[in-house]
Amino acid sequence: MIKKRFNSVFIDARNTSREKASNGNARNRLWWEHMPMTYKNWEGENRQLDSIDDFNYAEEVLFSNSPYLRKQYDFSAYANKKVLDLGCGSGVLSVVLAKNGADVTAADLTENATKMTKRNAELQQLNIKVVRTDAENLAFANNSFDYVLSWGVLHHTENTEQAFNEVSRALKPNGTGLVMVYHKSSIFYYVKGLIWLLLKGKVFKGYSLKTVIDFYVDGYFHRHFTKQELTESLSQANLITQNVFTTQQEQKILPFIPKRLDLYLKYHFGWYLISTFKKC
Ligand SMILES: C[S@@+](CC[C@H](N)C(=O)[O-])C[C@H]1O[C@@H](n2cnc3c(N)ncnc32)[C@H](O)[C@@H]1O
Fold it and tell me: CA angle, corner 95, sides to 91 and 96, nearest 5?
């Protein structure tokens, strides 16, 4: 109980990965093998997905947590296009893209995620190619895809810029994409950080806003970008930003604020930073 209050499952998983592997990429992989993204409680015992009910539940949670994906993102825009879902997790987005007619390749660093995605596709009777590969060294030929979607992934890899180079290489000329990464200039980053630093006392143990995040954010790595940093990193890989904005989960970004202010704050200071881009 005491351990739970003052430590976190994220820290424990990072320590385990650090003990078992010697370099960043291997530690990253171990973290996600051990803590797969299944939309089940991070602290729960069995977090694997196997049945159709499990996958439907994951889809429901992902979409209810992501009003942008539910209300604005047009899954049907990629029908008959070659689409890469990079960092597919349990394959929830791959499945929805495939149901909307896209020719989907789902890729992830871990054995666990690729296994779950294969199972998800099989249960939904969808033809999805599933590949275990590292975003920093993609197992795909140059100019393979029309579109790359990477939702909540590339802030978790050790070298995001190298992953953007790989996305660019794997995209066809004029190919497009969308990435979602964590946003630094966000209310979540500062408010949650201050809560942990001040109310949970981590400031007295030498933590800063930059390091205290280890307690409450997932992944072995979890880099936060400003809009400018993301735009520049993409552009160094010849991926030209078309639209960059933020979003967040359904619940209000701050308690007791009117709906219009909530929407305004989510669009500018949400925790999820989205950029659409085109390969030039
Ligand atoms: C937060 S989950 C997101 C999963 C999925 N996109 C979703 O929205 O449900 C991050 C995923 O990225 C994968 N990942 C992390 N680093 C990666 C890398 N270097 N290459 C490929 N996948 C990676 C993890 O294994 C994990 O499945």
Answer: 125
Per-residue pLDDT of the chain (280 residues; tens, 9 = 90+): 334 544 689 999 999 999 999 999 999 999 999 999 999 999 988 899 999 999 999 999 999 989 999 999 999 999 999 999 999 999 999 999 999 999 999 999 999 999 999 999 999 999 999 999 999 999 999 999 999 999 999 999 999 999 999 999 999 999 999 999 999 999 999 999 999 999 999 999 999 999 999 999 999 999 999 999 999 999 999 999 999 999 988 889 998 999 999 999 999 999 999 999 999 9
Among the atoms of ligand 1, which is closest to the Cα of residue 90? 9
Neighbour tally for 56: CB within 10 Å = 15
Query: How far is residue 35's CA from residue 156's CA, in Å, rounded to a whole number?
Result: 13
**Encoded tokens for 236:** 């160094």
Residue of the nearest CA to atom 11 in ligand 1? 87
Give the distance (Å) from ligand 1 centre to CA of residue 180.
11
Residue 197 sits in a domain whose CATH number is 3.40.50.150
Structure pTM?
0.95
Domain total in the chain:
1
Q: Which domain does 217 fall in, by range?
A: 2-279
